[in-house]
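Annotated sample (chain length 268).
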Amino acid sequence: METLKKRAKELLESKQVDVVLGYAAGPGGKARPVFIKDPAQTDTLILPEDNQGLNLAVYLTKPELKKIKKMAIMATVPIRRTLLQYLVENQLDLDRVIILAIDRDMPFKEMTDVAALEQSVNAQEQQLTPEQRQQLEAIERMSPQERFDYWTSQLSACIKCYACRAACPLCYCERCVVEDNRPQWIPVASHTLGNIEWHINRAMHLAGRCINCGACRHACPLNLPIDLLTQKMADVVFTQFNEQAGVSASCPYSLGTFKNEDKEDFIG
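Output written by the structure step:
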């Protein structure tokens, strides 16, 4: 971590970057995002205890950061996967970003090109956590009615605060479907049917794009297992198309492309 701090300071002092986006200690000992422009403040950078749940890449699509000419970003594996997905979706100019790759128990690495970024991601396991896998398997063992009752019970508690949308780095649409009222696709009020419609819509929007950073569940004030919806869709996409988000800068969006060899056994 000291090597990263030193490099971040050098980048700012030499004017190679205008800002360093990283983690600093927040209230209660939890990590918080920090935007550093003063080289002296790089000493406040920390490696978060939990690499999941706070995805700094979410800021890169914001208009305020798009105005910055050059920046550096502390990048855990989920963040690096997000950057690759941004490249697929033409949401990132890598020439504007210096990647300060951080992995627990591994030396800090600086990256500026796609090849290094892809290699660093593919050297890591991309599987679900044991807890996520256990939860998904338990849900899949349910009958269709039991599964529907489970999600109805879970999602009926949703207060439609849209913290999941705000925290998700792949929810970058300038105008979300929930904000459309002519026609109104998603009801404004927080009730069971509208909540289910919202979360199904979000899961489908992220199908084949979710990189499993855990930001949505981490941001949910009710700790609803909404990450399982997007992860189930990721499993389906991988099974049907053998494609995974955030592992390559050239992997096409599975639901936006067509191949002659795509499986069609779902057609009755």
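Annotation: The chain has a mean pLDDT of 88.
Annotation: The chain has two domains: 2-122, 130-246.
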